[in-house]
Amino acid sequence: MGHSGRRLISLAAVAILAASFGSPANAAKCGNNAAGFGSWVGQFKAEAAASGISARTLNAAFANAGYATKTISLDRNQKSFKLSLEQFMQKRGAPTIISKGRRLKQQNAALFSRIEKKYGVPAGPLIAIWGMESGFGGFTGNQHTVSAVATLAYDCRRSAYFTEQLYALLQLVQKGWISPDFRGAAHGEIGQTQFLPANVLRFGVDGDGDGRINLAGTGDALASTANFLRGHGWSRGGGYQPGQANFGAIQGWNSAGVYQKAIAIIGAEIDQ
């Protein structure tokens, strides 16, 4: 896993969220260490309550929240995206993802057929993302998600962006889509393909037909990923290698060039 601006919602979507929850100009003051985090939480909770987040949700969400030191450490040391494509593919275990991905494509043929029929996205890139993000659901993170997102919202480096992610996360808690003590990846990514909270709200779908959206489940995670790609311009039947029609949708998934190319290469190997 790792985070380099991936699955970032558009500036327009951020503006919509900001309009819904108040101006960032009135936001609690950010900080660059743990010292002011408690005060920030208190001020943020007051602002969130005034913006429509229930006291019950806020109390439950922040009951066990704290300053996420590991999240800050990982945020400051994202080195894998500086590797060459060959180094990145090796580090991510591309051959293993391809071989296991081919088996999973066969074993879940009906699921991938339904997803492609509905969203126009073939199995290959979905499986590539699934494998690289969580090892096919093998590890989706063990960090307290509210702590991680709140810490990044408090941290001055990307405070405005992660404040909107925190509001989205609280909406997920309030809707009952995730528990207040949900655990995920270090930057607040959720589920088997690692959606940030605002993208769960925007692109999350019920892919397994059980009547709820749960990105910890394979069907929902893969269908939501296909919905994300379609929402970023995926065109049914188009190619997805660099320079082809759908590579732009893959670029929407992750801002790192090596990650984008890895998805395209691994996906094509699985789809062949």
TrEMBL record:
The record's listing under InterPro entries reads: Lysozyme-like_dom_sf, MltB-like, SLT_2
Task: Report domain Transglycosylase SLT positions.
Answer: 37-240
The GO annotation for biological process reads: peptidoglycan catabolic process
- Please state the span of the N-terminal signal peptide per the UniProt entry: 1-27
Task: Show the GO MF annotations.
Answer: peptidoglycan lytic transglycosylase activity
Record bears the keyword Nucleotide-binding:
no
Signal among the record's keywords?
yes
Name the Pfam families on file: SLT_2 (PF13406)
Swiss-Prot/TrEMBL keywords: Signal
Where on the tree of life does the source sit, at the highest rank? Bacteria
The protein's name is Lytic murein transglycosylase
| Species | Hoeflea marina
